[in-house]
Amino acid sequence: MADNPAPVLGAASEKGPKRPLNADAYAHHVHNGRLAVAVVDGTGSTPEVVEFAQLAAATAVRVAARRTPVWGVMAASDLNSDADGDGDGDGDPDGAIAVARAIPGHQRWWTAWAGDCAIYRVITDGAVQRVTHPLTHGTLLRTQGASEEEARRYDHALTHTIGRGPIDGVWALRIVSPLLVLASDGLVLPESTMAEILTEHANDPETCAHELLKAGRSGDDTTVVVAPHPDTLERG
After folding, report:
1. Is 88 exposed, middle or buried (0-12, 13-18, 19+ CB in 10 A)?
2. What is the distance of C-alpha 183 from the center of its chain?
3. Does 205 score more than 80 pLDDT?
4. Could you tell me which of 14, 27, 4 has the C-alpha nearest to residue 76?
5. Rounded to two decimals, what is the model's pTM?
6. For residue range 46-70, what is the model confidence (pLDDT) as tens digits?
7. Cβ-proximal residues to 145 (8 Å cutoff; 6+ apart), any chain
8. CB environment 200-236: b (16+ within 10 A), e (fewer)
9. Residue 83 confidence (pLDDT) above 50
10. Where are any strands of DSSP class E within the chain?
11. Sorting pLDDT into bands at 50, 70 and 90, what band is 89?
12. What residues does each domain of the chain span?
C-alpha cells in the first residue's frame, strides 16, 4: 500500500455575521501520494445545506485523488441529482465548488469548478492570478455588454452549480504553480494584497489562510485553503 503522509495545508473558515450557519466546507484527501483539495460554498444556510456542502467536499476530494477533479465535481453532483437526472434536484441542496489535484513533477495541478468558488495560482514573479472565472449571471451580463452596475446585481446568481454538472458540464484547467489558494466567494481581496500575504508567510500555510481570511472577509461565509504543491515541499 502506498504511503500517504499528511499534507502540509492551511485552512480557515468563518461564518458570515448575519448567517445562522456556515454553509462553506473544505476537505483534502491523499491517495497513492496524490493530493486533492476542495472548497464548497453551499447555497443557503440550512442544516441540510451545511451537511450537503461537507459531504460534497469530502466526496469530491476522494474521487479527484483517484481520478481527476472533473470526476470529483461530477461525483459531488450525484449527491444532488434527482431520479430523472435533469440536474434540477427538486429543491435539493446545491452550491459552488472548486477542486484541485496535484500532479507529480514540475508543480502541475489539475483543477475543476462549478459556480463562483475561486482558485488562485502564484506566477513566476510572485504575483497572484485567479485562474477560474465566476460562473454567474453577472459574468454573463458583462460579456453581453451590460453595465457594471447592472451586472453586479447578479454576481451571486450562479449559472453553473454542483447539481447541474451533468447538464451544464464542468470547467477545467491544467496549471502550474508552487501553491494554490482555493476560496469561497466570501473572500473579497485584491490579488496584489493576496500576493503580499503569501510572500510574508511563505513558509506557514496555516497563517497564510487565516491572514487571507482576515484581510478579505466580506460579511458572507468565507473559506480559504492554502495548498503548497508537494513538489515544492520536497525541494524546500
Report:
1. middle
2. 5
3. yes
4. 27
5. 0.92
6. 999 999 999 999 999 999 999 999 9
7. none
8. ebbeebebbbbbbbebbbeebbbbbbbbbbbbeeeee
9. no
10. 10-14, 24-31, 34-42, 95-103, 108-114, 118-122, 128-130, 171-176, 179-183, 222-228
11. very low
12. 13-235
Distances (CA, A) of 218 to 45, 117, 158, 212: 16, 14, 18, 12
pLDDT digits (tens, 9 = 90+) for 127-185: 999 999 999 988 889 889 999 999 988 888 999 999 999 899 999 999 999 999 999 99
How sure is the predictor about 84, in pLDDT bands with cuts at 50, 70 and 90? very low
Contact 96, 171 (CB under 8 A): no
Judge whether 135 and 143 are in contact, CB under 8 Å: no
| Cβ atoms of residues 5 and 20 within 8 Å | no
User: Which residue shows C-alpha cell 488562485?
Assistant: 120
**What integer pLDDT is reported at residue 231 of this predicted model?**
86
Distances in Å between the alpha carbon of 222 and those of 35, 109, 117? 23, 23, 10
What is the C-alpha to C-alpha distance for residues 42 and 210, in angstroms, rounded to an integer?
A: 21
Whether residue 24 contacts residue 53, with contact meaning beta carbons closer than 8 Å, is answered with yes
Q: Does domain 13-235 have CATH number 3.50.50.60?
A: no
CA-CA-CA-CA dihedral for 196, 199, 200, 206, to nearest 10: 110
Alpha helices in 153-229 (DSSP H): 165-168, 191-200, 205-216
